[in-house]
Amino acid sequence: MQRQSGLRAVAVYEAAKGILVLAVGLGLLRLIHHDVQQIAEHIVKHLHLNLAAHFPRVFLAVASKIDDARLWALAAGAAAYSGLRLLEAAGLWKGRRWAEWLGALSGGIYVPVEIYEAAQKATATRLVLLIFNVAMVAYLLWDLWQQRKSRPALAKK
User: Fold this and answer.
1) How many domains does the chain have?
2) In a domain, 81, yes or no
3) Is residue 73 part of a domain?
4) Which domain holds residue 128?
5) What is the pLDDT of residues 112-150, one digit of tens each?
6) What pTM was estimated for this model as a whole?
7) How far apart are CA 64 and CA 41, in angstroms?
8) Would you say residue 46 lies in a domain?
9) Closest Cα to residue 31, out of 76, 71, 84?
10) Ramachandran region, residue 95 (left: φ > 0; alpha: ψ -120 to 50; beta: rest)
11) DSSP-assigned states of every residue in 44-79
């Protein structure tokens, strides 16, 4: 029962990521045939961001290069990522080993990047995400290891 609860908690987290990215992808589709540069400028003004600051400048520079083809490509990438996260979530919810491997491997890919980012500029958000991701990957690997230990040895021929 405890194993199932842990896997379901990870499944809910993965499903939430998948749904969030799907929502972003759908939002990108809504920008097709619109002036993305103008929308970005409106957002920067509405939020009273300093145009001389790094992130608003980068945001506006990226927005100036976005066209409909790029929006479609970004939305397709978001759909693929979302599909993978939701598939993993469904597998974890049902306690499937392949989903645990997928979660451990896909989560483990982010750990070096998150460590690097936290080392460059430690923020509470970065540290919480790093700790949570490491804990999730460690839990999935621990559970896979426990399952392997509990399986009977294969009969030798």
Assistant:
1) 1
2) yes
3) yes
4) 2-31+66-150
5) 999 999 999 999 999 999 999 999 999 999 999 998 887
6) 0.80
7) 10
8) no
9) 71
10) left
11) HHHTT--TTSHHHHHHHHHHHT--HHHHHHHHHHHH
